[in-house]
Amino acid sequence: MTPRLIREFNVNPYSMFAYFRLVRILNLFILALSLYLFYYYIIVPVHKNILFNELVPFIKTDFFLFVLAVVLIAAAGNIINDYFDIEVDKFNRPERPLPSAQVSLNTALILHSVFALTGIAIGFYLSWQAGHYQIGFLFLISSVLLYVYSAFLKRVPVVGNLVVAALTAFPFIVLLVFEASFLSIVQFENKRFAFDAIVWQVYFYGGFAFFTNLVREMIKDLEDRAGDEENRVTTFAVQFGEKAAKYLTAFVIVLLLAMLSFFFSRFIIAQHWKEVIYLNALVLLPLVAVLILVLLANKKEQFSRLSLAVKVIMLLGILSMPAFHWFNQ
């Protein structure tokens, strides 16, 4: 890297933390972890136990590239979100890298472009490797939607929340598409059964990702209501008030609990008691606590803690993949 670029990006051990915060490095880690766990604790075992074959959609290097592409596109989305939110964040989160001027707006735009284009390019490469280049357009569409969300949809009540929640679950869908592409060109006796088993897991973990992120986005809207109102950002909480927003958030949590209860009942029928205990103690009961506390909360700090609690629940849900795998060994 040239001295000029070093000055532009302000690369030193301390300023690097600003870039990590800009891309939301913890969220990216959770995203990458969830994909790795889904691949190695669900897809790979299905291939071994149902197809009786260790052939899988990706070799290790290509799967790393898949995760890298998803993470880069997500990082680009986080950057452009902060770019368009800079005025609001001056009120809500003045310590963020852009409003605090730790990272310049020009640098943010450059990073967004580099990350998004690199992620899309890798996606098309992997799609070409799989023999279905059309899959690459899924990477392009997700990148465009993240930009459109940040620029426009975020200010449309509920719609913006639904879009970003759907994009969080989208990587599981893309992974499923690669699996379908792989099974279409390789002949296995039980491939339909194997695919259905993976689809079932996508319903569970993709649905969990969708609803938990939707809940978290709605709680963040409650947390940021004052700043959003000051900057005329018409979120549901701003347009319809805190009370209505809390009821809507509670309703979504109830939907999430209903979805989890359905899968929970499947474990009970199968007498998988370790899975039942895990889900009940680490996911269901904490969500019930969040439901109650959302209705009682009335301060920014309380909503901030609830947002963090939902992120922890999300991580515990993701960690159920290796836990359930080990339970059945």
Explain what this protein looks like in three dimensions.
The protein has 329 residues and is mostly helical. The chain has one domain. Helix content is 80%, strand content 0%. It has 15 helices and no strands. It has helices spanning 3-9, 16-23, 25-49, 60-84, 86-92, 105-129, 136-151, 159-185, 191-223, 225-230, 236-240, 242-269, 273-296, 300-318, 320-327. The radius of gyration is 21 Å and the shape is globular. Mean pLDDT is 90; it is low at 1-7.
Q: How is this fold's topology laid out?
A:
Layout: H1 3-9, H2 16-23, H3 25-49, H4 60-84, H5 86-92, H6 105-129, H7 136-151, H8 159-185, H9 191-223, H10 225-230, H11 236-240, H12 242-269, H13 273-296, H14 300-318, H15 320-327
Helix pairs in contact: 2-3, 3-4, 3-8, 3-9, 4-6, 4-7, 6-7, 7-8, 8-9, 9-12, 9-14, 12-13, 13-14, 13-15
